[in-house]
Amino acid sequence: MIVYIVRHGEVPHNALRQYNNKDEDLNAQGIFQANELRNKIMNIDYDIIISSPLIRAKHTAQIINVKNREIIIDDRIKEREPGDLSGKSLDVTNRDEYWNYNTTIQYGSSENIKSFFDRVFSFLNELKSENFSSVLVVAHSGVSKAFSCYFDGMKDGHFLHRGLKNCEIKKYDYNE
Q1: What pTM was computed for the model?
Q2: Is the alpha carbon torsion for 27, 29, 30, 31 positive or negative?
């Protein structure tokens, strides 16, 4: 099975470089990015789209669904919950440490990275047993970091720079 992971288009908190747990929609730039991605994936065949339940991911999935396939929502691929960091600048944390799988630092009430990755791994383990040829997953930067760990390995445990940019797509193959 081929799995494509797509990060949603830009939302206001991305542009402001803030942590956020509000369920916000794409901004004008995010809609533009999703339409650009739609044009780039015209030749990708996929059986189904699985989306995070957050508005930004669902809206991106609707825009890029060039094959007009069913869109399934799965809570396990929601973004990592920032807790009381929500609304604060990304600069209030050491971002490398925030995305370090081996860290012992807990930033406020944010979701623990290991629990977050376990949630995404549960989704990926179940997906592996499905009978699809190709799946398009629309989610978040943090989810793309967990995908990277799952398919490419832990490496040094640092995931800050292993996430996708807005409306970037990456291909993984369960058969490799």
Answers
A1: 0.97
A2: positive
| Section 10-36 average pLDDT | 96
**Is pLDDT at 175 greater than 90 in this prediction?**
no
Which DSSP symbol is given to 162? G
Domain range for residue 129?
A: 2-173
Report how many domains make up the chain.
1
* Contact predicate 9/28, CB 8 Å: no
Average the pLDDT over 78-96 and give the result.
96
Task: Return the CATH number at 50.
Answer: 3.40.50.1240
Helices (H), 16-140: 28-40, 55-64, 95-98, 113-128
Q: What is the mean pLDDT of residues 9-20?
A: 96
Exposure class string for 92-126: b at 16+ Cβ within 10 A, else e:
ebeeeebbbbebeeebeebbebeebbebbeebbee
